[in-house]
Amino acid sequence: MTKKESDEPMDLSGAHPIDPGAVVSMCNWLQINDVRVIKPALCSLVDILSRTDKATDRVIDCGILRLLVPLLQHKKIKIVENSAWIISYITAGTEQQIQAVIDSDVIQYLTHIMQKGNFKSQKAAVWAITNIILAGTMNQIRVMVDKFKILGPYLDLMDTKDERTTKMILNGLTRILCNAQHFGGLDHLTLMVEQLGCLDKLEALQTHQDVVIYKMSYDIIDKYFS
User: Fold this and answer.
1) At a CB cut-off of 8 Å and minimum separation 6, what does 63 contact?
2) Core vs surface per residue 62-91: b (16+ CB within 10 A) or e
3) How many other C-beta atoms lie within 10 A of the C-beta of residue 5?
4) What is the pLDDT of residue 69?
């Protein structure tokens, strides 16, 4: 998924040249304990992140990932959701930008959101994680599964009523399984999926009314679990 293809969680302002000083100011605004300041700052940052990888680098260099940690735990649900979307725009970027996210503290909070958040926040977290899985390197995927233990919370959402989210997770699972096969860890991973109770959910999706979801779930089971 590219930045252009992602859901737009907030209204984006019109395109205009990026002022490096403005990026610094917006990042500083995120540290102000006032929702009326934080929300427009997040909105403006999405506008910047949706443009180019160079623009994303500028935002990362301003320390955005560190600043998002408390916002991912904010008492206002909309702030949590929008902060997760910010990360999804970053993980739609380059290998280096994905690594910056992995090296930060945000993954553990995205995992918590997938477990405990409201659905809109969960969807944003799923999108951010899926971007890493689909665009990341094989080693980055291994870190997500082995270190951050994203598999359970991630796959637990595959039976959501939102078909687009289900398709994203199935795409992510396919890449995770393919990656495990490459490293010789497929048997261990498939056992883990089964022990998490996610194989039952995958089998249930074979009766889904959406033909694409039915086919994706069928193909995964046929190739990796038969």
Assistant:
1) 27
2) bebbebbeebbebeeebbbbbbbbbbbbbb
3) 7
4) 98
> Residue length, the chain?
226
Condensed to tens digits (0 to 9), the pLDDT of residues 143-188 reads 999 999 999 999 999 999 999 999 999 999 999 999 999 999 999 9
Coil/strand/helix, residue 6: coil
Task: Output DSSP code: residue 13.
Answer: P
In the three-class reduction of DSSP (H, G, I as helix; E, B as strand; rest coil), residue 33 is classed as coil
**Are the CB atoms for 131 and 175 separated by under 8 Å?**
no
Give the list of residues 6+ apart from residue 210 with CB closer than 8 angstroms, or none.
163, 166
Q: Is 109 exposed, middle or buried (0-12, 13-18, 19+ CB in 10 A)?
A: buried
pTM over 0.90, yes/no: yes
Divide the 226 residues of the chain into consecutive groups of 10 and give the mean pLDDT of each group: 48 56 93 96 94 94 97 98 98 98 97 98 98 98 97 97 97 98 96 96 97 98 96
Residue 112 sits at φ, ψ, to 5 deg, of -65, -40
